[in-house]
């Protein structure tokens, strides 16, 4: 009988030990609690996010958390996301947004602040190192509530982390510059001089550029406005794109048409980049995404002939901030698992892995890694460029779409396609812009 009790006691002890070890293992694995859960993620169907699909599969293998990706064409994604996030029970646990949507999403109460997770040791990977993520990307894609409502500041809060973010750089034809004895442009004066020389001596376009009416030509103006000291609005939401700096920027667009490849007034991003990739232009100042395309023989006729440099300066250094960020809908029922997913996807390990898969990194440690720098010569340039990337590159407000397409986009296209004086064209657009802002209540607190 005593032997039987001893046997039962040993069995009980073994069970207790097993349970304790199991509990300890669960505590040691931050993902164990969520194993078997399914997250639904809303992503745009562009290149970076398509390539990240393999990374998602690796996340599931490592954590046991399943992920369903809902891909949408990015111009249609906003309406779908707002619809789902406005419901009591929406479909999405993670959403990726174009940076200009963040303020609208927060104003409507559709997103979850990430601070509640970053204050909990149970959720934060001690090796995550958020300071390694480019400041400009976090400020542009994830911070809401500071100055102007979308910039950093004491009233700002973190709602998202960058994923698929970008800035602008200069790409140029090394062979053309060498043949003509031209130095790589550092300033806009250098760009003007090089563009004119290239056009006159070779017949090739000097600088390619977007120019199609609407948001494409506005984007062209924005790329050059930041270094030239121009802004769309001042701090009191008065339109200032018709300032001397704004006019100077528009004059540069007109000059680029003169010395660029034929057809700029009809160019979207696709046509503008193709002009460079097909050898019709010797310079490109736009999104960093040109580098991967220039290396791809399926897209590029200039493989091995392209160099990269900092976005030229004028009165200051300033480059684009754009792309996407990820966050958690307020109505998600899987917020904790969703945070773990976002943290994992933006970790140092995943950032290096996304590069291997053909995507775009967000971390300075990845951009400055010697192995990657040797393989991707644009990386050291991007790392340096991000130091002065402009988080106020464009107004990240709900009204921007209307202003972008129907106001600035029309006026600037007329700059490209006519010889009319530029200042009156921009003055007229400024009156329209102010009317939009007044309609939306931006001046209610200002004295009459």
Task: List key phrases describing it.
single chain; 448 residues; alpha/beta; D-Maltodextrin-Binding Protein, domain 2; 5-stranded mixed beta sheet; 4-stranded mixed beta sheet; 11 strands; globular
In short:
The chain has 448 residues and is an alpha/beta fold.
What does it look like?
- The chain folds into two domains: 32-165 and 322-383, D-Maltodextrin-Binding Protein, domain 2 (3-Layer(aba) Sandwich); 168-320 and 399-439, Periplasmic binding protein-like II (D-Maltodextrin-Binding Protein, domain 2), CATH 3.40.190.
- The model is unreliable at 1-5 and 7-26 (pLDDT under 50).
- It is 48% helix and 12% strand.
- 45% of the residues are buried.
- The chain has 20 helices and eleven strands.
- With 448 residues, the chain is an alpha/beta fold.
- The strands form three sheets. Strands 2-1-3-11-6 form a five-stranded mixed beta sheet, with helices on both faces. A four-stranded mixed beta sheet has the order 8-9-7-10. Strands 4-5 form a two-stranded antiparallel sheet.
- It has helices at residues 2-28, 47-51, 53-63, 74-86, 102-107, 115-118, 135-141, 174-180, 188-202, 215-228, 244-259, 269-277, 290-295, 335-345, 348-357, 364-367, 370-375, 378-385, 400-417, 422-439; strands at residues 38-44, 66-72, 94-98, 143-144, 157-158, 161-166, 168-173, 205-208, 281-287, 306-309, 322-327.
């Amino acid at each position: 009988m005593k032997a039987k009790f001893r046997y039962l006691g040993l069995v009980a002890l073994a069970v207790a030990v097993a349970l304790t070890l199991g509990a300890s293992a669960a505590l040691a694995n931050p993902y164990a609690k969520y194993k078997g859960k399914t997250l639904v993620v809303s992503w745009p169907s562009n290149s970076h996010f398509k390539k990240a699909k393999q990374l998602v599969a690796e996340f599931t293998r490592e954590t046991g958390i399943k992920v369903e990706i809902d891909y949408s064409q990015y111009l249609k994604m906003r309406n779908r996301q707002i619809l789902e996030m406005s419901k009591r029970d929406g479909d999405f646990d993670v959403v990726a947004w174009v940076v200009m949507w963040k303020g609208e999403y927060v104003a409507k109460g559709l997103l979850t602040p990430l601070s509640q997770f970053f204050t909990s040791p149970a959720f934060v990977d001690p090796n995550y190192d958020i300071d390694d993520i480019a400041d400009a990307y976090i400020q542009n894609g994830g911070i809401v509530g500071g100055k102007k409502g979308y910039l950093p500041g004491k009233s700002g809060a973190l709602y998202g982390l960058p994923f698929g973010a970008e800035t602008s750089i200069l790409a140029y034809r090394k062979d053309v510059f060498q043949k003509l004895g031209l130095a790589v442009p550092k300033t806009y004066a250098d760009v003007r001089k090089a563009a004119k020389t290239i056009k006159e001596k070779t017949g090739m376009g000097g600088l390619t550029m977007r120019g199609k009416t609407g948001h494409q030509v506005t984007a062209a103006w924005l790329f050059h406005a930041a270094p030239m000291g121009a802004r769309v609005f001042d701090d009191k939401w008065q339109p200032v794109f018709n300032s001397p700096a704004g006019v100077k920027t528009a004059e540069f667009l007109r000059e680029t048409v003169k010395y660029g490849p034929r057809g700029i007034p009809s160019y979207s991003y696709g046509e503008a980049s193709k002009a460079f990739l097909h050898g019709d232009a010797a310079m490109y100042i736009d999104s960093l995404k040109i580098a991967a395309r220039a290396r791809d023989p399926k897209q590029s006729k200039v493989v091995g002939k392209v160099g990269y440099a900092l976005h030229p300066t004028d009165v200051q250094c300033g480059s684009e901030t754009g792309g996407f960020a990820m966050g958690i809908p307020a109505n998600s029922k899987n917020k904790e698992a969703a945070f773990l997913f976002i943290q994992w996807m933006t970790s140092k390990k995943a950032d290096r892995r996304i590069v291997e898969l053909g995507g775009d990194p967000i971390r300075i440690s990845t951009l400055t890694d010697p192995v990657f720098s040797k393989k991707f010569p644009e990386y050291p340039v991007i790392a340096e460029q991000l130091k002065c990337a402009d988080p106020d590159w464009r107004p990240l407000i709900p009204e921007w779409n209307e202003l972008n397409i129907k106001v600035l986009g029309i006026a600037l296209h007329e700059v490209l396609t006519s010889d009319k004086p530029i200042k009156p064209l921009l003055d007229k657009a400024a009156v329209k812009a102010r009317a939009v802002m007044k309609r939306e209540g931006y001046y209610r607190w200002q004295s009459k």
